Amino acid sequence: MADWTDCLNFGISVAKRAGEQKEVKLKSSPADLVTETDQRVEKILISAISTRYPQHRFIGEESVAAGERLQLTDSPTWIIDPIDGTVNFVHRFPFVAISIAFAVNKQTEFGIVYSCVEDKLFHAQRGRGAFLNGEPLHVSGQEDISRCVVVTEIGAERDDLALSTLTSNIFRLLKLPVHGVRALGTAAVDMCQVAMGGADAYYHIGMHCWDIAASAIIVREAGGVVTDTDGGWFDVMSRRVIAASSSAVANRIAQVIRPFPCRRDDEEPLQSGGQLTADRKCAGPLMKSDDTNKTH
Ligand SMILES: O=P(O)(O)O[C@H]1[C@H](O)[C@@H](O)[C@H](O)[C@@H](O)[C@@H]1O
Ligand SMILES: [Mg+2]
Ligand SMILES: [Mg+2]
Fold first, then answer.
1. Which residues lie within the region annotated Disordered (predicted)?
2. Do 82 and 116 fall within a single domain?
3. pTM of the complete model
């Protein structure tokens, strides 16, 4: 088995350096401000990593937003979210992370999530455990859904189907009941909460590979379970994820939540007026027929 520890250590050092980027140039609007910062951090990361590993490929949120093709091949690939929690960043809500995963042959070899405001560095390497600031991490191991804190995200979708599915899923979980439902505004940190036992599960439909790839391996290496939202095999490009403290909890959540259609990350972007757009919003075929069987 190839040893990617050198890449992991380099990834950790660039994530910490990029997380020190504190100076924020004031621009005309919060959207401009944050776009500039996101792009700047992604450039810092990609430029440092590609100088050291010129053969490696990248999937970066901001590069994809700028029109770059999103394609996960068998080549060593860094999957980067330069700022996970952009809305938090704008509002100074204190959960903002740099998320970096590294995949070879489409398998994630390691993941790094640097929660910058908290100064918490999560990392995991395949088969070698998960760590927070160097200390081993473990999920809670909780198996009883009625004793769980479950994390999800509100996400960016605002169409009726997405919103009604999202709210009814929270409703169903609260009625089980679970102990509580939380949303921190960054999928990467949400999932790391599962890895460290602060929460017992996370689920969402609609996040992108750069939001969840790094934290998925961190949860697994912390002893947790990562599945599709139907309880099946997790595919990092599918935008559907449950991360849980145990299979029992993952399966229970899969039984309860209803899916809604979502374009895969590796699907060709929608055509708009004859031009490719970077739009990867949830849209597509209607719900699967078995969705009607889900628990209310
Ligand atoms: O866009 P960023 O901040 O990288 O990612 C965030 C999503 O946009 C947002 O919809 C979601 O709620 C948040 O958790 C996610 O990490
Ligand atoms: Mg993100
Ligand atoms: Mg981002």
1. 264-296
2. yes
3. 0.91
